[in-house]
Amino acid sequence: MSITLGDKIVLIGTGAVGTSYAYAVMNRGLCGELVLVDINEEKAKADVMDLNHGMVYAPSPMKIRFGSYEDCRDAALVVISAGVPQKPGETRLDLVDKNLKVFQSIIEQVMSSGFNGIFLIATNPVDILSYATWKFSGLPKERVIGSGTILDSARFRLLLSKEFDVAPTSVHAFIIGEHGDSELPVWSSANISGIPIAPRLSDERKNEIFVEVRDAAYKIIQSKGATFYGIATGLARITKAILQDENVVLPVGSLLNGEYGHENVYIGTPTIIHRFGRKDIVELALNDSEKENLAKSVDALKKVQNAFWQ
């Protein structure tokens, strides 16, 4: 069966992340139709009204409305940000049991509509829930994408840009693995316009930068309850790459099938994204230390995953 084309997006979950994503999509003019779905109909309808009040200033016409799972039938992209949010003191993996139950119900209803597009998953723990979506939906792995480490890598690039006083877009560096505590920076390939970064920093400084990246969410959650602007912007970037068939490399959540010597697990890794979802994983040349840390990250995810799937 061929994939559903077009540019209709259905957003499931209109909490802080979902509404921030909808706002980013509207302001970038990324689609012709955006449908919001949420169990809290009153709030979602108010979000639709609020967003539509800004349409006169948007870059292009867009139909924004409240809908239901039936609207997924002809959607090109279903974005899921629904679920129980991370609370202060919780890790992302602490959310597994709660959000797996939510996701099973969501995916069943989406697939019952006849959906044949691409899933983009943002709910935490995003790696486990991307895997769950792939399992529950029965869709090819190329059409189930997680937000992965797109936000972690953005934080990494931002800190390095400040360290060396250059634009973040000139910094080429990735965080890979779990979107969470076991993630790792790939210092061996980090560069500024081709110039290696690692030799220019002490081990102590590199560790300080990484810890700031890894723990950024905890700091934000402690201060304001949730993170949403950064991830919403990252989701919008992935959306643009899909709908505009960009063939761009982004650090998203992809299912490994032998890459890095691992399989049957979703991790954040550089991936070529185009109109049909994931094209290919770009396998980074890791040094021995990075390989070891990635294996630990994969093991942490599989330990949780194997409690639900054998």
Give keywords.
L-2-Hydroxyisocaproate Dehydrogenase, Chain A, domain 2; alpha/beta; single chain; 310 residues; six-stranded parallel sheet; 2 domains; Rossmann fold; 9 helices
Q: What count of helical segments does DSSP give?
A: 9
- β-strand percent reads 15-25%
Question: What structural category do the secondary elements indicate?
Answer: alpha/beta
Strand order of the largest sheet: 3-2-1-4-5-6
The tally of strands reads 14
Helix share, percent: 25-40%
Would you kindly provide a written description of the structure presented here, covering whatever features stand out?
This protein has 310 residues and is of the alpha/beta class. The protein has two domains: 8-146, Rossmann fold (3-Layer(aba) Sandwich); 150-305, Lactate dehydrogenase/glycoside hydrolase, family 4, C-terminal (L-2-Hydroxyisocaproate Dehydrogenase, Chain A, domain 2). Helix content is 40%, strand content 20%. It contains nine helices and 14 strands. The chain has helices at residues 16-28, 41-52, 96-112, 126-137, 150-164, 203-214, 216-224, 229-243, 288-305; strands spanning 8-12, 33-37, 63-66, 77-80, 118-121, 144-146, 171-172, 175-176, 184-185, 191-192, 195-196, 248-257, 263-274, 277-281. A six-stranded parallel β-sheet has the order 3-2-1-4-5-6, with helices on both faces. It has a three-stranded antiparallel β-sheet with strand order 7-10-11. Strands 12-13-14 form a three-stranded antiparallel β-sheet. Helix 2 (41-52) links the parallel strand 2 (33-37) and strand 3. Helix 1 crosses helix 8, helix 3 packs parallel to helix 4 and helix 5 (150-164) crosses helix 6. The longest helix is centred in the C-terminal third of the chain and has 18 residues, at 288-305. The chain is globular, with a radius of gyration of 19 Å. The model has no long low-confidence stretch (mean pLDDT 95).
